[in-house]
Amino acid sequence: MSQRPESKAATGAEKLDERGLSKLRWRCRRGLLENDLFIGRFFERHAHELTVTQAQALGDLMDLSDHDLLDLHLARRTLAEVSKDLDREDVREVLSLLRVNR
């Protein structure tokens, strides 16, 4: 029996569509101006290439408080210190993309 490779849809590697991107941008609005600026730069650079998996990871980061998110962005705390549930490869990847835009 031959195995088929996983499709992009099955892996979450497909690109985020315009509707999903619009919802994600709305979801990422923050109370702290600093976070809004960092996230805005992130979208300027990466919006056209975001995958569904990355969007889900970014959404998970948005569940954090503004201060925890800023601490992560500035590398004052680690993901493990902020939330054991967020200490995952997909979240680390998105966090590194956020940090590149500082």
UniProtKB/TrEMBL annotation:
Localisation per UniProt entry: Cytoplasm
Keyword Glycoprotein on entry: no
Top-level taxon of origin: Bacteria
Transmembrane portions of the chain: none
SUPFAM superfamilies membership: YgfY-like
This protein's record includes keyword Transport: no
Key words, A-Z: Chaperone, Cytoplasm
Principal place of residence: cytoplasm
One annotated Gene Ontology cellular component of this protein: cytoplasm
Gene3D superfamilies for the chain: Flavinator of succinate dehydrogenase (1.10.150.250)
UniProt cross-references to Pfam families, sorted A to Z: Sdh5
Family to which this protein belongs: Belongs to the SdhE FAD assembly factor family.
Protein name: FAD assembly factor SdhE
